Amino acid sequence: MQQVDPALTIVPVDHIRKPEDDEEEEEESSEEEEEVDLPPGPISSEHCTVGGPGFVGGSAKSSISFYVTAKDETGKRIRDGGAYVTATVNPGRVARAGGAELVFADIRDNSDGTYTATYTVEARGDYESSGARCQQ
Length: 136
Prior knowledge:
This protein has a domain at 49-135: Sandwich (Immunoglobulin-like). It contains three helices and seven strands, in the order αβαββαββββ. The protein has helices spanning 19-35, 53-56, 93-97, and strands spanning 49-51, 64-69, 84-91, 103-104, 106-109, 114-119, 127-135.
């Protein structure tokens, strides 16, 4: 008969945990934590993003549009409309020489956390969007 050391615990093989099991369990628990979808916080102008063709350029005397996406202070997208958004387009040196003035974009709320800013510049030249100001 075989002697067993009393300080030794015998565990069936299917109950032995391998180091890889611990890593998998940590990954699963972190995935579970990621699945918790907290609602976004209040809108933050500094974190809103702007893009689209009208943000890069356009033609004088034509309607040009760009998009503003509302985000909170952590950069999480806000998916509800209703924010107060403003956007301006500033003429550069060449455009000012051609008589251009500051342009205020018309803003349309798309009711999904995005806003469409549409503007028209009267003179050819360089322009710069001031971005967008967003607030609840």
